[in-house]
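## retry 2 of 3
previous attempt timed out at serialization; input unchanged, resubmitting
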Amino acid sequence: MHHTDGEEDGGTREEVLNGDTPGAWRPGSTPSVALEISSLSHGPDAVARHEGRVVFVPGVAPGDTVEARLVNEHASFARAEVVRRLASGAAYRVAPCAWVTECGGCPWQQVAYDVQLAAKATNVREALARIGGLSAAHELPIRRAPDEWRYRHRIRLHVGAGGALGYRRARSHQVVEIGDCVIADAALAAALPAVRALVRRLATRLATVELVGNGAGGVVVSGAAHGAFVAADERHISTLLATAAAPARIVGVQLAADGWQRTWGDVRVRVDPDAGGTTIVQHPRAFSQVNPAANRLLVETVCTMAAPARRVLDLFCGAGNFSLPLARAGADVIGVEASAAAVADARASAAACGLTGARFEATSALHFLRQQGLAGTELVVLDPPRTGAAGAVAQLARLRAPRIVYVSCDPATLARDVAVLAAAGYRIGRLQPLDLFPQTPHVETVLEAALAID
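## retry succeeded, writing output
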C-alpha cells in the first residue's frame, strides 16, 4: 500500500527521489561509478557515457552528476540505477509525484519543462536525419502544451492482485497502485477513490479501467473485462452512479469483453477540437487525444498546413478530430476509418454540427486507396497509430498524391514512412513538433510533404 504524504517506508521524499528506496543499490553489491548526465534519450531515461559506452540512467536530468550501479551491460551500451545524487544540474527539479520512482508513466517529471521541450524537438529532428536521411525545409519551434500538469482527460489503469488499481512499473507487468496521478485532470483524480472501491467490490474480472472526462465536468468509467459479466455486480454499479457526488461526478459506466458489453448511465464523451463550435460526441472506447487543450493546437496546426486545399482525404480519421474542423473551414472532406463505431460517431457529429461537407467511409486506409485512389482530392491528411502507415504511404507515393500532411506520435515510424515519400520525389516543407504529453518522452509531429514538380 502506498502513502500520499510524501514518505514511503520511513524514507523522506528527497531520499525516495534520490534513489534511496527499498530494492535500490546497497553497499556490498556491484561497485558503483560516477556518471555525468549529458542529455535525455529518445525513451524514458537520460544519457551518460562511461568507458566509451552509452549508459541509460532513469530519474535524472541533464547536468546532474550521480553515483550509479551498472545493472545491464552490453557491448555498446549499459543501463544503470542511481545509488545517490552527487550534484544536481540546472535542469533538475523535484518531481511532485509520490510514485515517480516506481510508476513507469511519467519518467521526465524531474526535468525542467523547457529542457523537455528542447529534447523532444531534437529527437524529432535526429530521427528524421538518422532513419530517413532527411531534413525539413522549415522546422518550426515546438509548441508547448498549455498545461504541464493535470492535462489528461483520460487515463487507463491496470487492475492488479486484490483489485489494486494503477500503472505498470517501468519495463514490467507489475501493477503499481497509485493514490493520485499528477497529469490526470482534477475530475479524474477526484473519481479515483470511488472507482478503486468499485473495482474491489466487483466479481466481474477486469483487466483495465479507463477514466474518461466527458467534456462536461463528468467522468465515464470504461472497463475491459475477462470472461463473463457477473449479474450481482449490477447493484454495485447502480449504487456508484446513484451516490457519486461532486467532485467525483461519475456519470456513466461501460464494461465490455469478447461477446458482451453493458452500459449504465450516460457514457457519451464530448470532444471540442477547435474554437469554432465543432463538437464531436463519441463512445468512451473510441480514440481521442488525451490532452484536449493541446489537441486544439494540433487541430489548428493541421488546418493551417492544409490550407488552401478544398478537397481533402483524411485517413485514420477516428471520430473526425481533423475531418470536422477541416469541413468547418470550408473543405470537402472524405474521412476514412477502420472502426465502424468511430465512423458512426463521426457521421452523427457531422450531422449535429451541420457539416455537410464531411462524409465518412468505414474501411481501412489501404483498402480505400486501392479501391478508390485519391477520390479526386488534392490533399491527404493521415494520423496513423504509433506503428505508422507503411502500406498506405507506399500506396500514396504510387498514386502521386500532390500534397500530404502526416500527423505522427512516433518520430521513428514517421521517419521510416517519410523516407518512402522522399524516394518517390516528395520534399518536406514544414515540420511542426507539438508537446501533447508533458513529463513523458512522447511527442506529436505534423509534417508537410509535397510532390516535387520538375
